[in-house]
Amino acid sequence: MPTVIGEVDQTILHHALEEAARLLKADGAMAYLLDPTTGVLRFADDAGITDARRRRWVRSLKVEPGVGMFGRAVSEGRITLTGNYPEDPSFVHFPGADRLVKTLAISSFLIAPLVAGERTFGAMGTYTSRRDAFDENDIALVRALANHAAAAMANAELIHELAASRAEVERRADAEQALREIGARILALRHPDEVLQLAVDEAARLLHADGARIDLLSEADGGLYWAYDATTGRRPGMGPISGTGAAKAGEGISGRAVREMQPIFTGDYLADD
Description:
- The protein is an alpha+beta fold.
- The protein is 42% helix and 21% strand.
C-alpha cells in the first residue's frame, strides 16, 4: 500500500509539472497527491489549464488508488501510458477523469508515480491531444522529473519536521525555565497570590492557549471557586475571564480533576459527555 503524507511544497511540484509539459511539448501536466486523512488521491496542481471555472472544477476531483491512470500508477508504483485514453480498456475509468479528458480533448497521457524511498506522494503526468504522442525517451524524462520532484518534496518535508522538532525542544526548555521560576517563588513564598497568578499566566503562555484559570477548593462549603485567570489576547475582542459560580468537587472538568486527583482534558468541551 502507498504511504500517505501531509502537506508538500507546492512550488516544487508546480515547477516539475511546468518542466514536464515544456520538455515533452505537451498540452499540459497535472498531479494528484494522496490525502493523509482519507487515503484517496486528490487533484493537487496543474500546468496548462487556464480557464478559472474549469480549474476550480478540476481541483475538486478525487480518485481511489487503483482507479484511473493516476490511481493505477500509485497502486502499482510504475509508469502508466496510453495513446488513446477514451478507448483504452487497460485501466478502470471513472466519470470525473473521463469528463476531464473529454473537456481537454486528451488522447495521450503519460503518468509517473511520485516516490522517494518507501514514501509515495502521489503521481504526476503529462497529456496531449495527439494520439500515440509519447515514446521511450519521453517515459525516461517524465520518470526522472517525477523522481526528482519526489526527492525534493521528501527533503522539504524532512526540513519541516526538523524545524518542528527544534521548536518543540525550545518550547520544552522554555517550560522547564518557567517551572523552575515558579518553584523558586514557592520556596520563598510570601505572597501566595503572586505565585498562583504566575502559574496561570505561564500556563496560558507556554501552551499557546487563549486563556487559563485556577479554581480553588473552599473548605467552608466544598465548592470550587474561580480564583485566578489569564488571557493571552489570541482572540481579538476577548475580555478577561470572570466568574463567581461554584461547582462541587466532581462537577465539571475542574471538579473531576479534583475528585480523581489527576489531569483531565477535553477536545470539545460542550459536546463532551
